Amino acid sequence: MTEQQQTQKPSEKDRVYIFDTTLRDGEQCPGASMTFEEKLQVADILDAMGVDIIEAGFPIASQGDFESVSEVAKRVKNASIAGLSRASVKDIDRCAEAVRHARIPRIHTFISTSPVHMQYKLQMAPEKVLELIASSVSRARNHVEFVEWSAEDGTRTEHDFLCRAVETAINAGATTINIPDTVGYTTPVEYRALFEMVRSRVPNADKAIFSVHCHDDLGMAVANSIAGVMGGARQIECTVNGIGERAGNAALEEIVMAMRTRSDVLPYTNRIETKMLTRASRLVSAVTSFPVQYNKAIVGRNAFAHESGIHQDGMLKNAHTYEIMTPESVGVSKTSLVMGKHSGRHAFKEKLKELGYDLGENGLEVAFNRFKDLADRKKIVYDEDIAALVDDEIVSSHERIKVVALTVIAGTKGPQSAALTLEIDGVQQTHQATGNGPVDAIFNAIHALAPHDAKLELFQVHAVTEGTDAQAEVSVRLSEKGDVVAGKGADPDTLVASARAYVAALNKVMARRGRGPLEAIAAV
Ligand code: KIV
Ligand code: ZN
To answer: CA of 241: how far to CAs of 165, 170, 278, 296, 355, in Å?
Structure first.
């Protein structure tokens, strides 16, 4: 069946709602924190891509979370905006306050229902849990029309109790019932049967939409999600690139492309514009500094690469021999060879549009200058180079600390030294430091200019494209008092990319603390 045929008869198919939780469950994973501005950018792309519900955060968790949920609620044009809340009055009221400006506000409230969670985590009797389900859902319903209730650790919950809990939530006014596989424990056959069981046994089950929410601890999150849909669920909770707690959540791009590519056996429709999947993946990877593994399905760098001679031969004869979906269908352009130093502003703007970026006039100007600089230093500029450069610019545009200039003396005779100029809150300062190697010297200089207690946990370099003049993309992870933040930087000079990556992570340390004076970095 061709791709066109696959999308032709939506009316016959069952509609599945895509609920994206990149900004909540995704952001909860260590090191994936995003700044306020980054969250808005992710929300914008999710909305433009056709996500039905965006879970924008956990408003009670912090003032920052509250503000970002509330700003996302104000600016998003199409999607419904959900906020997460525990089963307490304070949580629910705070959540209602955060989502109230949304076109379609939703409160998502949850409580654990499995024996192990009720006994050890909640230390609550099952009857008390049922009481809280009723009171929390009805309080949420007094605030908004759409209330989702989740049975945390639902897949390890006793069936009789799960049915009573679901019935209680629907009676109290829940419009969506989510049965999460919180610990990534279930299997496809079991999860499908669970939905069939609950939907057949709960008397008021027809009054709510059922939802899947799967974690990937055993690598089955996507398969389980689809199995849940086959069991009658009509909402899928997922994240871009599958980021999330521990092994992550079900990956949005995999779910959407599985349903599209195998619509012959998965006759469900959704509203996602699949051509935006790669762009969304790149943005989430850039702002979380979580690299996408090369062999990741759909959005990995090798997802459409054909290396072996036999495969290449087959591809040249007919692409269907080894491609079950086209790269274009997920937003990967046919050729990745793009422009050089003679390309003008207009061509650059068109290229950005083709890659899915909309930077606005100021952003465009800065990105164009960086592109020109890159084109002067690098013979061939590929799409990947432009994406790395623009992602780097997106992340750094709102930062309080910026790398202005760097000169490094390195080589066999130490000590290596770095003269670094940073702009901190608009003021430029320079420091010269030595170190055990050039990277150490640079990081020492950053330390001297912006003192902090965060520890370096990870330093990783990879080349954006092939060739010795390729841009380097550096990832840095810093930890401080149990909090992990990550930063990425790109530049043809590995040392400049290293400085940018460290500074990007440091900016996130500050963003987590709010907008206090820079000296607070060392004091907290
Ligand atoms: O995994 C989980 O159970 C959750 C709930 C809060 C829905 O993320
Ligand atoms: Zn979860």
So the answer is: 32, 32, 10, 9, 18
CB 290 within 8 A of CB 241: yes
> Which residues crowd ion ligand 2, with CB under 5 Å?
25
Residue with CA nearest ligand 1 atom 2: 182
Q: Which two tokens stand for residue 80?
A: 């419904």
What's the pTM value of the predicted model, to 2 decimals? Answer: 0.84
CA of 337 to the centre of ligand 1 (A): 42
Ligand 1 residue neighbourhood (C-beta within 6 Å): 25, 110, 150, 152, 178, 180, 182, 213, 215
Q: How far apart are CA 311 and CA 420, in angstroms?
A: 49
- CA atoms of 269 and 52, how far apart (whole Å): 12
427-435 β-sheet, strand order: 401-409, 416-424, 427-435
Distance 38 CA to ligand 1 centre (A): 23
Q: Report pLDDT digits (tens) over 506-522.
A: 988 887 765 444 444 43
Per residue in 242-268, pLDDT (tens digit) is 999 999 999 999 999 999 999 999 999
